[in-house]
Amino acid sequence: xxxxxxxxxxxxxxxxxxxxxxxxxxxxxxxxxxxxxxxxxxxxxxxxxxxxxxxxxxxxxxxxxxxxxxxxxxxxxxxxxxxxxxxxxxxxxxxxxxxxxxxxxxxxxxxxxxxxxxxxxxxxxxxxxxxxxxxxxxxxxxxxxxxxxxxxxxxxxxxxxxxxxxxxxxxxxxxxxxxxxxxxxxxxxxxxxxxxxxxxxxxxxxxxxxxxxxxxxxxxxxxxxxxxxxxxxxxxxxxxxxxxxxxxxxxxxxxxxxxxxxxxxxxxxxxxxxxxxxxxxxxxxxxxxxxxxxxxxxxxxxxxxxxxxxxxxxxxxxxxxxxxxxxxxxxxxxxxxxxxxxxxxxxxxxxxxxxxxxxxxxxxxxxxxxxxxxxxxxxxxxxxxxxxxxxxxxxxxxxxxxxxxxxxxxxxxxxxxxxxxxxxxxxxxxxxxxxxxxxxxxxxxxxxxxxxxxxxxxxxxxxxxxxxxxxxxxxxxxxxxxxxxxxxxxxxxxxxxxxxxxxxxxxxxxxxxxxxxxxxxxxxxxxxxxxxxxxxxxxxxxxxxxxxxxxxxxxxxxxxxxxxxxxxxxxxxxxxxxxxxxxxxxxxxxxxxxxxxxxxxxxxxxxxxxxxxxxxxxxxxxxxxxxxxxxxxxxxxxxxxxxxxxxxxxxxxxxxxxxxxxxxxxxxxxxxxxxxxxxxxxxxxxxxxxxxxxxx
Length: 696
Fold this sequence. Notes:
Layout: H1 2-16, H2 19-47, H3 67-79, E1 86-90, H4 97-115, H5 119-131, E2 135-147, E3 154-165, E4 170-172, E5 183-190, H6 192-199, H7 201-206, E6 229-236, E7 241-245, E8 274-275, E9 277-279, E10 282-286, H8 288-291, H9 293-312, E11 317-318, H10 324-331, H11 344-349, H12 353-356, E12 358-359, H13 363-387, H14 391-394, H15 403-413, H16 415-442, H17 445-452, H18 459-484, H19 500-505, H20 511-519, H21 521-527, E13 528-532, H22 540-564, H23 572-583, H24 593-608, H25 615-687
Antiparallel strand pairs: 1-13, 2-3, 2-8, 4-5, 5-6, 6-7, 9-10, 11-12
Helix pairs in contact: 4-16, 4-17, 4-20, 9-13, 22-23, 23-24
């Protein structure tokens, strides 16, 4: 069963991929869109004042009021008046260096792309299509130049182009609401040489050139500058492919189906078109002018009638044919000039000058003219009620109205315009989002660096700088050890030193990290948010008020934080997060976010350090320390003095004892000597012979 189903699906896909299938789809869609195309042509002819064959005014010399042109030209600058600036930032507003740098790179590249093309012209064409035929659209395309031969191709001059699509050059499958659209086709007109270059010589020679400036004309298969081939490019969401077919070549597709060149969110390379009036039964709009055409025709009718009555409002009359002097009096006579009369008596008989001329009655004409002008004003008021084009929007003002009344009329009168303004802003935001997707997916690192001017390092460059730092650190350690040992320092490594800019870029993410985020369409959608500012002319006073409010809020917060930090230094991280949370909610704070982040980091680091001493407390501490030192010194002096006196007393006692010992020793020595001497004397006496004895 599954094999049969797979075979059926394969057969159906083969049918869907055929040229005849898509040409049949385009033919059916063309018939559905044809009434809208016809109605849109009539509106544009009316806008350009080319509709002179209207039934309401048969005379081509009749006067008309360009009410459609006036309304369109009044509303256009109110809907779009300036190029929107991309506002690309981190979606979650948290501390994410890679997301911050990637957002900055992408925003600058989108700004460069917008400034490099006439984006305003494209947006104005889209707005005008919405105001006249009823809907406008533009498509985002990727283009690049391929240089070099096969195998050595290089991409250069990469571009993201916002291309306006003429309102009659695109079709969709019939649908009630836009979410039911599953294929979108737009046509291009190519010469035979362009077809040959793009699709090959075989198709270029066989294709029929079925288009020329006059729409709908069929021409033979001959070359000519005014003859071109119609080529339809079809985006099929159901198949996830792009198909290309031509009514002048029905044998096959012009090329093999391809995947979309860029993975856009929602598949389509264009935003939902801006539309005038649509209901939920069809995506084909109704032009605005069709809804007030009856009032506009009534205004033209009254304008033409007023013109004819004004032509009739001239002084005219009848006079007798035999009174030629009367004609001279009315047409040729100068100031204070007298005209002779042929028969004075007859003039008197006819009642004098009053009876000579019968004037054409102007009272009735003037009354009719006044009535027509009054009816014209009422018709205009009715039209302004239908269109919502109030006095304030048109720049008119009633002197008798108060400022409050005019402000109320301006607020309520601009509600309908605001809805259109938001739709135009939505379209501009979505087309810029697609431009950002094209740049993020296709542009090379070199292109992003040149367009953004952001100086980042690659991983290889960071590795080289880290190797240099490690080599220099090792050399310094070896030099210090050699100096301590009294040896000569080793030679310094011969490596290229990084520049200060490169050292500063070491703290930022690398190009590989940024490109990894930009190339990942899922992560990019989660991390980066693409918005735009207003496409309407800003109110300078309002902008100044917002700037003042932002500055005042920051200054007020910093003043409060300055009082808290000295008392509670631990609150520094919390206060920093509060400041960043508030700043990231102000558009003006986005350009200063990096500087404020650095300020917060420095403040937190400073708060983590010990607080500086209080000068008064420091003086008191010094005094107390001095007094303590003085008392301690005096105490030590007294102790030392007591110890000295005690030592002196002990020395005196020791000296006395020593003297006593010396004296005792001397006395003992003297006694021992005396005793020795006595014994010596006794011994000598004992050795002498008695007296009177003769020696032997």
